Amino acid sequence: MTARNARTVRGRLAIAAALCASAALTAACSGGDAGPGADHREAGLVQSPPKPAPAGQPFWVDPNSPAAQQVKQWQANGRASDAEVLRRIADRPLAVWPAGDEPGWQIRAARDGAAKSGSTMVLVAYNIPHRDCGQHSAGGAHSEDFYRQWIGAFADNIEDKKAIVILEPDALPHVADGCTPAEYHEQRFRLMSEAVARLKKQKNTKVYLDAGNPDWIRNPGDLAQPLWRAGIAQADGFALNVSNFQPTAENIAYGKKLSALVGNKHFVIDTSRNGNGPLPGRGGEAWCNPPGRALGAAPTTRTGEKLVDAFLWIKRPGESDGQCRGGPPAGKWWPEYALGLARNSK
């Protein structure tokens, strides 16, 4: 991972197969390659019924997220005070990252839960061929045709329910920074523009193309052409700061500049872990499980900015960025790191 990248959408999880081996977890496993937002459930923990979205909060809260399950476990094991702090994550809406070759089962679970609570699900489509330049989250669809199939199944399972889709984190910034080889650029633009068109056939689905963060592609002009080529004209806008730590104010300023270059499109910002901003310094592994970070602004559509449609928790707080600073494999739930994020939040 390059220093310019400084991203945290990390990891194909080796733990997926082990989790799926448990009969108790069969319904929670796709049998495929798990993405950074995969919702891996701890064995033996109780499932909860859906609950209505809190007032003023329109997005779906998964009552059985790893954080929610951890709260129950700590309550049962005498860690009630820690459990209460962790509710700062458990009671918030988190994006769902459907993983593996069949995205439908996770989308159906989110769809049905959101329908019962009258809320909007937030989904991340993350399966572009040649994903992450062969680095930490290498993988993705093995062919153009398979990607079309996959995104078609993704869209079909949304049905007519309300959804926000963040389309392909890293894909366009990796074109802009030169990490993705030039021979794959045209394929990427083609598949992403087709994905936008396919997803927009779902009448209540909004689509935002990932556009990195202000500390990655410093000049927003470098992203304008990739966004146009990838279908921004048909999309609802773009997403900033996915899995990163850049302050909200900096994202807003950057987003306004980028918006002016792409038809004044609106944007959303990932505020899941930017409460204390990024770890000082750009070198090394500043992006990987940095200490002292905090939860950012809670998900909401009340952003106070005309061009900012929502603050979202796209990265799922508490899921590891990788095996650094004592962390587990990328994407695996790390309760003590989650607790630190929650304790540090205002």
TrEMBL record:
This protein's record includes keyword tRNA-binding: no
Leader sequence range is 1-27
**Biological processes annotated in GO:** cellulose catabolic process
Which of UniProt's keywords are assigned here? Carbohydrate metabolism, Cellulose degradation, Disulfide bond, Glycosidase, Hydrolase, Polysaccharide degradation, Signal
Q: What is its EC number?
A: 3.2.1.-
A single Gene Ontology MF term assigned here is: hydrolase activity, hydrolyzing O-glycosyl compounds
Binding of substrate: at which residues?
W97, W216, N244, W287, K315, E319
Q: Which stretches of sequence are listed as region Disordered?
A: 30-57
The answer to whether keyword Repressor applies is: no
Catalytic residue positions? D132, D170, D321
Q: Which family does it belong to?
A: Belongs to the glycosyl hydrolase family 6.
Protein name, UniProt field: Glucanase
**Species of origin:** Streptomyces indicus
